[in-house]
Amino acid sequence: MSNAENGQEPPEQETPDIAAQNAEIPASGTAEADAQKKAYAELNDRFLRLAADFENYKKRSERDRVQTIALANERFACDILEVADNIERALKSDDAHLREGVVRIQQLLSAQLQRHGVCPIESLNKTFNPQEHEAIAHVPSDACTGTVIDEVCRGYRMHDKVIRYAKVAVSKGKENNHKEA
């Protein structure tokens, strides 16, 4: 039986039709593949951006948490400093027993403050520094101009940050008492 008798066309005629169909399949397959690649690239880009945003969020959250804790500690330290000021005033009392008890309390408080990174700013006989001192008076004295001659209220630093400026009196040098006649 021949191919014509079986209802089939000769193989020579099938080849061009199959080749045409096969040519269309890769073309449409390439378009679909390109579309899928494009969609994949967009989704991958979106994923990478979301991952980067999430990492930035974690870093920002950690930074905010650390700042919040530092601010809370700073507020606590400022509240305690008021107590420390009152203890220092009591230390100037003449009553010996009261003074001895307050000295012990003051030493304990100072140790606790230092444990938390709170240290006093040394001011007396130092050059006035606006980053540590607040000048509340300029007084004539024998000291050099710009020297701190009195500390009205002690300043404190927590780690490297000034949390309370020292209120000080600053020398403006010797006063001229020469009056013109």
UniProtKB/TrEMBL annotation:
Superkingdom classification of source: Archaea
Source taxonomy: Archaea, Methanobacteriati, Methanobacteriota, Stenosarchaea group, Methanomicrobia
Primary location recorded for the protein, binned into one broad class: cytoplasm
GO cellular component assignments: cytoplasm
Name assigned to this protein: Protein GrpE
Function: Participates actively in the response to hyperosmotic and heat shock by preventing the aggregation of stress-denatured proteins, in association with DnaK and GrpE. It is the nucleotide exchange factor for DnaK and may function as a thermosensor. Unfolded proteins bind initially to DnaJ; upon interaction with the DnaJ-bound protein, DnaK hydrolyzes its bound ATP, resulting in the formation of a stable complex. GrpE releases ADP from DnaK; ATP binding to DnaK triggers the release of the substrate protein, thus completing the reaction cycle.
Subcellular location: Cytoplasm
Family: Belongs to the GrpE family.
HAMAP family given in the database record: GrpE
Spans annotated as Disordered: 1-36
Annotated Pfam families: GrpE
Subunit organization: Homodimer.
Gene3D superfamilies: 3.90.20.20, Head domain of nucleotide exchange factor GrpE (2.30.22.10)
Keywords: Chaperone, Cytoplasm, Stress response
GO MF annotation: an example: protein homodimerization activity
Alphabetical GO biological process terms: protein folding
